[in-house]
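in:
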């Protein structure tokens, strides 16, 4: 068996109905993991992701839940565990809207909203899965962060600060959980257009792509493949790391 094989592992990917989460679910499913495809509103899309995995011989099931609330997290973990067993691989990917806001206009609630997505929700989900992981002396917690922290994107301090805090969580948890052989890493994508970027101006995408050292934007599968590697035994000695997947955009 290859070290990147995930047969027998149970993976939960939050926000996996579309965008990067869908590509992550597909990459994990292709390697044999049982994949819990969490979604909030896009039931058809979540089902389509599962169909694609199942038709290729994998095993996946959609799970509706609001991962930004304690009730949603409790229900989700109970349902996934009942269907598949204890979670071995937790991918913290879900996001709500990410508005650009100038300093003059921003409110504390604007920050709290982003911290709910990227600190509170990861905290609640990790607390819910960590017991069995510690018991097994194994586990993978993979955050989907962002390059925006390194790039210091202006008029975006709500999102940038929450993504910075998420990196802090990842680093602290990695040392805390290392004695149990549980790894905690963060994948930091560059701008990778998903459906929600469909209406963004083409010249903005072109402007961004021209500045990427590799000369183009990434694709969702670039994130899926990196997450699948970190989830596997091949990455068993990697923890507390930020892996930038952005064509060299944040190289200093
Ligand atoms: N795409 C990029 O350029 C980029 C760059 C850097 C970092 N990232 C990060 O990558 C992650 C994914 O981003 P994306 O661009 O793929 O986002 P996206 O395409 O907007 O997808 C968001 C996903 O989150 C789900 N979601 C929304 N509210 C939820 C809730 N309350 N509970 C559970 N799921 C919920 C959505 O589900 P429904 O559709 O079912 O509602 C959807 O599956 C985020 O952490 C983002 O910050 C993205």
């Amino acid at each position: 068996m290859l070290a990147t094989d995930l047969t027998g592992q149970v993976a939960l990917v939050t926000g996996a109905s579309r965008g990067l989460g869908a590509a992550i679910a597909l990459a994990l499913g292709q390697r044999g993991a049982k994949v819990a495809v969490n979604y909030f509103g896009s039931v058809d899309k979540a089902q389509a992701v599962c169909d694609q995995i199942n038709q290729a011989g994998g095993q996946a099931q959609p799970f509706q839940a609001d991962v930004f609330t304690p009730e949603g997290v409790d229900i989700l973990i109970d349902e996934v565990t009942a269907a598949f067993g204890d979670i071995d691989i937790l991918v913290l990917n879900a996001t709500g809207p990410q508005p650009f806001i100038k300093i003059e206009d921003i409110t504390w609630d604007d920050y709290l909203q982003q911290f709910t997505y990227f600190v509170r929700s990861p905290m609640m989900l990790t607390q819910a899965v960590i017991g069995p992981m510690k018991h097994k002396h194994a586990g993978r917690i993979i955050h989907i962060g962002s390059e925006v922290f390194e790039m210091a994107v202006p008029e975006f301090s709500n999102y940038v600060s929450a993504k910075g805090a998420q990196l802090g969580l990842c680093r602290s948890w990695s040392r805390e959980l290392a004695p149990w052989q549980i790894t905690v890493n963060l994948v930091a994508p560059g701008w990778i257009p998903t459906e929600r970027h469909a209406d963004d101006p083409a010249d903005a995408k072109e402007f961004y792509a021209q500045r990427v050292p590799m000369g183009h934007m990434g694709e969702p599968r670039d994130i899926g493949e990196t997450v699948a590697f970190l989830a596997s035994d091949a990455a068993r000695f990697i923890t507390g790391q930020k892996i930038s997947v952005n064509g060299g955009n944040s190289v200093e």
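note: The pocket of NAP is lined by residues 14-21, 38-42, 66-68, 93-96, 144, 146, 189, 191-192, 194-196 (CB under 6 Å).
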